[in-house]
Amino acid sequence: xxxxxxxxxxRVERGIYQKQLAVYLHVSVGTISNYENGIHFPDLKTLCKxxxxxxxxxxxxxxxxxxxxxxxxxxRELVDHYTASDIMNIIIELTPEGRQDLVKYLTMLSLCDGAxxxxxxxxxxxxxxxVSPLSETKTEYPPE
Length: 144
Prior knowledge:
The protein has 8 helices and 2 strands. It is mostly helical.
């Protein structure tokens, strides 16, 4: 999905009119329309304002990641002085087998909590050219 489509979806999902967004950014409604239709692209300052307005990361808007939350969320403490960023770094440093074991453990915990673990199959479909260590082995997931 390109930038214009993401911007349009974010705006519509949140019930924001082009005029409201234009007022916030100090641009014309036509400029917002041009962004959404892929005719023009915002400058860096405007891109940051859009990310702040919609509470998403600029990388999400640029289609560099599917991680939608603002980058500040990575610095939020989750548990025992560990931030989301700390935990991600620990996971990245694990061996492929360690990551697979972690997925199995998280699946077990999610079953115990009655929560659903996000499906990894969606990520595999989106980036079939990239092979992640998690996709190299088979894992049984709880039924969705």
